Every structure is written in structure tokens, then in C-alpha cells.
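Weekly modeling sync, notes
Attendees: S.R. (lead), two postdocs, one rotation student

Agenda item 3: backlog of single-chain predictions. S.R. asked that every request posted to the team notebook include the full sequence so nobody has to chase files. The rotation student volunteered to paste the first one in as an example of the format we agreed on. Action items at the bottom.

Example entry:
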Amino acid sequence: MDPSYPQENFHHTTFTPSSFWAKRRSIVRKNTLHAQLEILKSTGRYDAFRLKWHPTYEEGYKALFWDSDVGKWLEGACYFLAEKGDEEGDKVIDEAVKELTNMIAGAQWEDGYLNIHFTVVKPGLKFTNVRDLHELYNAGHLIEAALIHHQHYKNNLLLDPMLKYVFLMHTTFGPGPGKIHGYPGHPEIELALLRLYSRTGNTHAYELAKYFITERGNLLGVKGQHFYLAEAKQRGEDPGQRPAGDAWPTANAFWYQQAHKPILEQETIEGHSVRAMYLLTAVADLVHLSRTREEDSSECEKYKTVCERLWNNMVNKKMYLTGGIGAIDQWEGFGIDFFLPQSTDEGGCYAETCASIGVMMLAERMLQLDLDGKYADILELALYNTVLGGMSQNGKEFLYENHLASCSKRPMKRESWFDCACCPPNVTRTFGMLGGYLWSSIVKGKDLEIDVHLYNSAVLSFEVPGGTLSLKQDTNWPWGNTITFTLDAPPSLDITIKLRIPSWAQPFENGELFILSPSPIPSLKCSKSYLILTPSYTSLYRNTPVTLAFSPLTFRPRLLRHHPSTNQNTLTIARGPLIYCAEDIDNEWVEDHFKSVAISEDTKLEECVAHDTILGEDFTKITASGVKVEDAGAEKGSFPGFDIVREKSVKKTDVQIVFVPYFYRGNRGGRGHMRVGFKRL
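Predicted structure, as returned to the notebook:
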């Protein structure tokens, strides 16, 4: 077992009940799991593995993802069941998990095949359209569910069926004669297979994942042509035909599936953003595992360079300030470099919740390859803004898309569920394994390293040579600027602790980015934005509080701007890791989704404390002065352009704008007006 996976080591973390994330995880356990279970039942998903006909099957491909909806919910349920909690509420969830497990196992074919759509709706057509119809994607999510089910229940009731399915897929796909020389249109199974290998040592899983990754985008893969073209031809489709209802802007736009060229040759990140993130997460993990699996891992190491290249392209040129990715609604993915409009009526903005979860997944895998704070910074940005904002405060409503501004066509509004319901259970499982994202550890004999990526009051505890190690952190993050650590471990261990220093940290008056107390002598060093507490330091302060403090300026509101090439001449308010937005519920005067409102870079940002009654916690609101600009002559003229408007025809009204954290939007009613970036005066 590789302890570096969040899915494997989440149970080593115990959240302090009053902490920021403990409250939200408690909501998921008490509300979200139960609400989603009822929806699974009412929509037919829960009973779908009984393989009976359902009216939804007559509505095209609406039920195509039902396997994965159940798999993700089951996975999330097991993470929470692994912790002590509400026994009465957990009993309901536990019984549902056990019943689903039996139904899933009972739906498996004798040869190992397992899929609802191709058993009930389209029998006889299995593996004939892996480009479009998500068989392998569904299998991946069921594998991930089986792994945590096995870890929690200590039985093979779900794992054995998935191992049997993997054997079938291994005999069906691959480079050998008589096999399908292809790979899934929606990556996901690759990362699941690699985790399955890591847990079980199943070589079929590793070989299949590696094949899917290395074969993807081979332009001459099947008798001199691209696999997707060969597969479509075998189905009798016109080579230039676009799939019905699909998101392709042109025929054979295989960048949608990240299959336009081999991964090693890809220079920029393209296509469907969730698919890209899931694929690159698997690619990074392949590099990680190949270092111990392969006698010569040099070929796999080349993929690390690709991951870095595509990561940099994404973060530097295609990511929103919220950590969201994907500007184009049509294909739920990336546009050209620097194309980052804020709303649908301004040209786009999709930023799917699942995509930001994928950003977290990829960032975590990259941290295992290279402990660089730039990955943890983006992990935190996505988590606190787009991922957290993807779920309501009460845990019962969700966002599929995360626009940075509303409009009349797309007002700010949450939903309890979606026809394509990938996001709600994805948020559930992410919060279930969240403890595994806070830190990671490496144990080599008596040498032990703990890397702290995220700050939240919690305790990390696990068995080590000579006893038990625990590392406790106390903090009011993301509102406060200090974190106190207490280490308890056997004296025989040489322990290194590395603490992330955020890139947005502001210096104290003396120029230092942080203060560590007790003060180390000699001073400690930072490497790639991680402060290194050496064994000589940690041995001095066992069971003694050590405090990492950032300057008060670090947690004061600040203004951000986009890269000039985006042509977004806007200002955005941030505080710590949080991005802020304005809503009409606090600004009743707004009538146009804040389009006509501008702020100056010199505006004074005032903080005030507000109280959230749902979670019973205080949070910080920010108030800024702005100007509402009304152009009285804007509609005059008969030409495509307009004369430069003289100052006297522009009406300006001073306004006070109240801002709340972006994750908090859409929780208090209102008319659906919301905006992140405001015009710059």
C-alpha cells in the first residue's frame, strides 16, 4: 500500500470539531449523504443494478453515468463510515452501502463485465463505443468505491467483482493480437487502476493503466489510423460525422478527449477540463509508481515533464482567480490562452466543480513528484473557493458551473441535483477523504518526513517504529494568521517537518515572511516554499508548542488583477486563500448583475464580522467604495461604434459594495445577481 494517497491515509487525520473543515464535513455526514441517498432512490439510480427497465432509459443517454453516480456516493459514504459519528444516521448509510454492494456484485456478467447501460439498454454492444459512452469511466469509479469499501469493511464483496472486471478488460484491451487497441474517451479508470495496483499488487491493473496512457493519441494506432476513427468506422459511422448532441465544434476534434496527439507531444492543455485533470492525475501517478515498479523508469519520467508543462500552461494562462478551469460551455473545457471571461453573456465561463476537484487531485499527485509550494497553493485555492463553493452551507444544494459573474441567462442559483450528476457525489467523496490532503508522510527506517500542505485544526496520528506519532495543528485558518504545532513521537526517530509558506504571504516590517517560535538557532531554510524543520529542531521541541505566524498584512484584504492578455481590466478582492464576490442580497440597489459598477485600486477595503447561522460560525465580510456608471448616450448613433462620450453625459453614483467569500454565494436567497471581478476605475 502506498500511504501517500489521500484515499488511503485520510483516516490518520482527526479534525478538531470546532474547526473550519470539521463543521463542513459534519454537514456532509448529517445532511448530504442522506439527501443524496434519497435522490439516488427517487431517480432510479439506487435500484438500477437490479437490471430492471426504467423509463429514463427511453430518454437518450440520461442514465449513462448512473453506475458512477452510485459508485461515487458509495465511496464517499465509506470514508465517513470509517470515522466515529452519528450511530443512528450511520446505520442508514451503512445498510444502503451493503445493499448496493450486493446489487452491484449481482449485476456482473459471468465473464466479469459490469455496466447498467450495456446490460439493460444496449445489450450486445459492450466495448463498441468506448470513445463516447463511458463504460470505462464508470468502471473506474466502481473500482475506487471498491478500494475504500475493502479498506473499511475488511472484506472482498466489492473488490473481487472489480478484480474480475479488470481481468476482463486486460484481456480485451492492449497491444496484443485480437485485442482492442484503444482507450477511454473519458479518462478516470487509469487513476483507479493505478491505485488498485498500489493496494493489491495486481499487475493487470498496472499494465492496463500504462497502456491506456501511453497509447492515447496514437495517430496510427489501428491499421494506420486513429483508434477513434477506426472504432467509429466499425460502427458504420461517417468518419467526418460529429456524435449526436456532442460537444465537438468540428468533426474528429479529439482534443476534447486529450487524444489529438500522444501525451508526450502535447504542448498546451486542451479540451474537456475534467477529462484533462483525471488523465494527468493518472499520468503523474504512473511516474510515481514506475520509480519502484519499472527496472528502467526513464521512459515514464518523460511524462513528468509533460505534466509540468501542461500544469504551467493551465495555471498561468487558463485558470480563473478562483481556481476554476474551463471557459467554454460547449465542450466544458479550455479555451485559447488567456480567454477567461467572467460570465455567459460576456463570452463564457464554465469552471465545472468536478474540474476543480480534478485540479486538487492533480496538484496532490504533483506534490508527490516534486514538493513545490506552487502545487499546494493551487490545491488550496481550488478547495476553498470553487470546490467548497460547489456545495451549499447546508449540504443539500450544489453548483455544476462556477461562473465569476451572473447574468439574466445564468443567474446565481443552486440545485439539489442534475441529470448529469457527477458533481454532487464528487464533492461528497472529496470531503470524505479531505484529511489525506492536509499532509503527507514518508517513513524510511528511523527517518520520517511530514509535509504539511494545508492548515486546519486537526491531529495526524499513525504508528511508527517504537510507538505512535502525533502531530497536532491549532489554527483559525482561513481567517487567522497563526498555526501552532505540537509533535509527540518516540525519541528514536529523526523527524523532518516541512510547512508550506503561501505565495500570497506578505512580509513583516523586517522583511520576513513568517515568524517561527521558539526561534531556531541557526535559522532554518525554505525550499520551494516549504519551511524545513530539521530533526535537530524537532527533537528539541517534542510535546512543546511551535507556532508559525504570518504577518497581519497577509490576512488583510487585497486586490488582484488578471494577466493583461486576458483583456479583463477588472479588480478582484481576496483575503488569505479566499476570493470574494458581491451579491444582491447585501447590495439591494444592484439591477444589472454589477456590470455597471467599478472600483478603484485605491479604494479602502473595510472588514466586518458576520455570523453564519447554519454552521454557527463567524466569517469576514468586506466593504468597498465603488461607482455605478450610467452612460446616457451609449445607445445613440447609427454606426457599429459610438462617439467618445463626454463626461457630462455619464452619470456616476457612489455606492458601497458588500463582499462575501465566493464559497458563500447563493446561500441566502436573493435575485441571483453576483460578481467577482469589478471594472477598474
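Discussion: group reviewed the output briefly. Residues 94 and 350 are 35 Å apart (CA to CA).
Action items: rotation student to repeat for the remaining queue; S.R. to check formatting next week.
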